[in-house]
Amino acid sequence: MFQLHGSIAVIVLNNPPVNSLGHSLRKYIVEALNAANANPAVRGIVITGNDKAFCAGADVSEFGKPLQMAEPILPNLLNHVESSSKPVVAAMSGVALGGGLELALVCHGRVALESAKAGLPEILLGLIPGSGGTQRLPRLTGLEIALAMMQNGEPRTGLQLADSGLFDKVVKDNLLEAACDLSNALADELINDSTPLPRARDRQLETAAVQERLAIARTKLTPRQQLQPAYTALLDALSAATLPLEFGLQRERELFLKLQGSSQSRALRHQFFAEREATKLPAGMQATPRPVQTVAVIGAGTMGAGIAICMLDAGLNVILLEQHIDALQRGEQRVTEHYQHRVATGKLKANVAAANESRLTCTIDWVQLSDADLVVEAVFEDMSVKLEVFKKIGTHARPGAVLATNTSYLDVDAIANATGRPQDVLGLHFFSPANVMKLLEVVRGAHTGADVLATGMELGKKLRKVPVLTGNAFGFIGNRIYNAYRKQCEFMLEDGAWPEDVDSALQAFGFAMGPFAVADLSGLDIAWRMRKAQTATRDQRERYVAILDHLCEQGRLGRKSGSGYYSYESGKQTPFTDSIVHAIIEKASQQRGINRRSLSPTEIQRRALLAMVNEAALLFNDGIASRANDIDVVLVQGYGFPSWEGGPVFWARQQDRTILEQDLQTLAREAGFGFVLADLSALLS
Ligand code: NAD
């Protein structure tokens, strides 16, 4: 049940891999505690975990299932610990998250390693702490720290929290010894001076100050936070922390249970599991990855520099290769400035930045490519340039090196064939900014070797990204769906909406940005160039909206040129409605013979989402995505789709199927020639 260290009973949590508080662990803690309390040789108790985890909190897979409600449920377990007659001290190493931290909060003392990580990440699953976190943490740390920790869900280290009031002691090492000492000291006080055991519940917060601060926090919720009920519920729960604990706990529980059944929390939990699943190759495709320590990045432009940074951040050696010395210097400067900025803003220690930069080699000499275990190409999006570059890669890369292209749209098989070793080639589609965005599409070509694919997935995890497998087809998963969505939004411009109507409706749904604001940000010229290249092959019967072309013809290339779908004051990012744009759009409607009508936000949202769902079903039926849920991961992680709506597939599954299919038929009719109506059955089954 427990180990005896002198007269201290040490209860070791052991539920691999991260000590989640599943039913069996909860039961074990109660039994061990009872045994320790009943044993006359024991005067104090320590609860501890292992290097990786003190306790990572509730077992999410039990959510909403009978086991979650099987005794001892978490709140009852915590009451039991708090009311132990012998002092209980938490000895914390590794992570203490959610219910794991709440367990520590009911102990009579807490000792943590400097490296331990404590956090209440429930908000990321659309929840609030449900077992006292909102009531006890502010009693220990004060409202400010507790609010910040629960609002962003990010864990903080023992060192960062050393003076927060959360811990009695933060140590570099000898954790168990320090915890046993504290347990002994508390036992002494209890026996010698009848000092009651210290409990967070007995502390009081200052009501007026707390309510005043929470009122300010309410006004500061962002529009995206306002769309997620957990953010308001958190403030409501914190507001109850000024009441006697029993009342506060009751309020917290009510709010928690309501959130647990909310569509937002279900969607976020769906995302959580979908993400976890997406990073694994489907059964039958698994293989041992090839080792990667040195990566060559070809092309040091926007993407190349960003890719180099994320490789350096992951501890890899990077060879950055360019065609001209001036382009190389610009790329190197991008990397250097990035690290200078991170250090200047306190986000990275100078020695870490220096160590990362020391692993970077910049060159225009192709011979150096032979040192690379993996090559990532990020040159211009032009097939002839890519073919030439991959031919050279085929010549210079060492046998067995993995060869990747960061192309957004081009055919990975054609590129692979240029190397003479297509089995070594795959697509690694990073998103911009490459060192920030978590999504990585791992593209499987017709000849990609299983171990090469496994290397791509493994690398994604090493870079702390979410790698998602995709087949080789125009736009892969993400850009293909995004194109269908953007096209539908362009139809809506011709039908009667303005860019600002479409953008605000989709932002109100929860998208990080509307499609036209995104287009202005990334520049309209890329799409313009692609449209021009497709002119010859485009079927004239297809509905084609030429508004973007007309904007570009007038030099409106997006933010970088000061105007696009909106205009921008020099150096500023705020978009302004522009009468010139309205005139271009009105003319486009006229030319198509459309009587403009106003579109409601609901219609705009529904049409945009239906277009996504239809395209998702098409590509899923083609086998481009191997799991329907992967599509949700791609859209949420790479395209600003609101995570609390779960992704387009999850959204579609919540809709009435008959109405959904009827609406899709209407959408197809209105789009006219070229719109392929998808069969939704496989996607939504
Ligand atoms: P960019 O124009 O910023 O950079 C391309 C770089 O490649 C330039 O510095 C150029 O000098 C270099 N280059 C060209 N030919 C070369 C050669 N033969 N040898 C060595 N270097 C050469 O372009 P970018 O935006 O970084 O895009 C690069 C690739 O990434 C494209 O395939 C693009 O589709 C893809 N991509 C871009 C984004 C984005 O948002 N920019 C997102 C995902 C993927």
Any overview of this molecule?
By secondary structure, this protein is of the alpha/beta class. The protein folds into 3 domains: 3-260, 2-enoyl-CoA Hydratase, Chain A, domain 1; 294-475, NAD(P)-binding Rossmann-like Domain (Rossmann fold); 479-684, N-(1-d-carboxylethyl)-l-norvaline Dehydrogenase, domain 2. The protein is 48% helix and 12% strand. Helix 13 (325-344) runs antiparallel to helix 14. The mean pLDDT is 96. Bound molecules: nicotinamide-adenine-dinucleotide. Residues 298-304, 322-323, 327, 378-381, 385, 389, 406-408, 430-432, 522 line the site of nicotinamide-adenine-dinucleotide. The site of nicotinamide-adenine-dinucleotide has 23 residues, from helix 12 and helix 15.
Radius of gyration: 28 Å
Strand order across the largest sheet = 13-12-11-14-15-16-17-18
Structural class: alpha/beta
The N- and C-terminal alpha carbons lie at a distance of 46 Å
CATH architecture annotation of the largest domain: Alpha-Beta Complex
Give helix % range.
40-55%
- How many discrete domains? 3
Mean pLDDT: 96
Molecular shape: globular
The CATH superfamily of the largest domain turns out to be 2-enoyl-CoA Hydratase, Chain A, domain 1
Would you kindly provide a brief summary of this structure?
The chain is an alpha/beta fold. The chain has 28 helices and 20 strands.
Salient structural properties:
28 helices; alpha/beta; single chain; N-(1-d-carboxylethyl)-l-norvaline Dehydrogenase, domain 2; 2-enoyl-CoA Hydratase, Chain A, domain 1; globular; 685 residues; Rossmann fold; 8-stranded mixed β-sheet; binds nicotinamide-adenine-dinucleotide
